Amino acid sequence: MDTRLSINGGCRLDDWGVIRASGADAAKFLQGQLSNDVISLPVERARLAGFCSAKGRLQASFVIWRESAGDGFLLACSASLLAPTLKRLSMFVLRAQCRLSDASGEVALWGVAGDAAATLSGGAPAWERHEHGALTAIRLPDAAATTRCLVAAPARVDIGLPPGGSLSLATWRWLEVRSGIVTIEAATVDRFVPQMINYELVGGVDFQKGCYPGQEVVARSQYRGTTKRRTFLFDCDAPIRAGQDVYASSAHEPTGTVASAAPDPSGQGASALVEVRLAALGEGELHLGSVDGPPLRQGALPYPVPLEAEAAA
């Protein structure tokens, strides 16, 4: 249900954290670990990227951008994964001149939507960034006809939202779901190859950048047409949480997994991004939790998803 609510304001994203990578080899190190091109990332842009296991399964996802001064990068990710992700990445630093640290105590993240986000982004396209004094505003893809920005600010700085400009974290998370972009969190670690959650469709994978953990698996899925699972938007009258199983009416085994979910800000049900077997889309109604669980109603993603060639592969 796209309620098209009038959403304007911002909220502190306490469910996100920030990793800092700095040092002469920071760009080279991240280039060898993430699914997107870091070396070519200009200072005026940000990118979506995944961190995969050797089997190509996503361990974390990031919004990444260069720090305004020095040779560092900031990587925003789910707070539920920050500590284990930082530990795992640190295992691969070895002799590289790269320092990884938890910067969440120094850098606060805010989600800003509506007119306030349009002002901060200056009408820029998605993934461009603007500096406003101590603030960094990254324009995110729109969701539910609403402009969105991710704002990074020093932890104790007031970002100066207009009067009445408060936004609940639940509403921000609903906008994240409606954007069609999955954020990997603790409940979904090691569940998805990037294509299963449409990451190559939303700019999260660069197939020309060279090696990173799981790169061969990700490339094989892309070029051999072996992606049999994709993520779609669904609405439900019942609460939904990430990691829940989804069943087709005609099946007794799970046919999909909830990748992201949030309650609808209208107070009527919830929206979710659900990773599902393509073949299951033609096997009758999908249900949450069991074959007789609450039914899911498919909505429209803000970008096209290839179906025919992959379903036949």
Structure description:
The protein is α+β, with helices and mostly antiparallel strands and 313 residues long. It has helices spanning 26-31, 82-90, 115-121, 169-178, 215-223, 308-312, and strands spanning 9-12, 16-22, 46-52, 58-66, 73-78, 99-102, 107-113, 129-132, 135-143, 146-154, 229-236, 245-248, 256-263, 270-277, 286-288, 295-298. It has a domain at 9-178: Probable tRNA modification gtpase trme, domain 1 (Gyrase A, domain 2, 2-Layer Sandwich). Helices cover 15% and strands 32% of the residues. The longest helix is centred in the middle third of the chain and has 10 residues, at 169-178. It starts with 8 loop residues before the first strand and ends with a helix. Residues 308-313 have low confidence and may be disordered.
Largest sheet: 6 strands, antiparallel, barrel
Oligomeric composition of the shown chains: single chain
Named CATH architecture of one domain: 2-Layer Sandwich
Here the CATH topology of one domain equals Gyrase A, domain 2
Alpha-carbon distance between the termini? 32 Å
Widest sheet, order of strands? 11-14-13-12-15-16
* Main CATH class of one domain: Alpha Beta
Q: Summarize model confidence as the mean pLDDT.
A: 92
Helix content: 10-25%
- Overall spatial form: globular
Q: Which sequence of SSEs, written as H and E, runs from N to C?
A: EEHEEEHEEHEEEHHEEEEEEH
Strand content: 25-35%
How many strand elements? 16
| Tally of individual helices | 6
Structural class: alpha+beta
Low-confidence stretches: 308-313
Within CATH, the superfamily of one domain carries the name: Probable tRNA modification gtpase trme, domain 1
Radius of gyration, in Å, reads: 19 Å
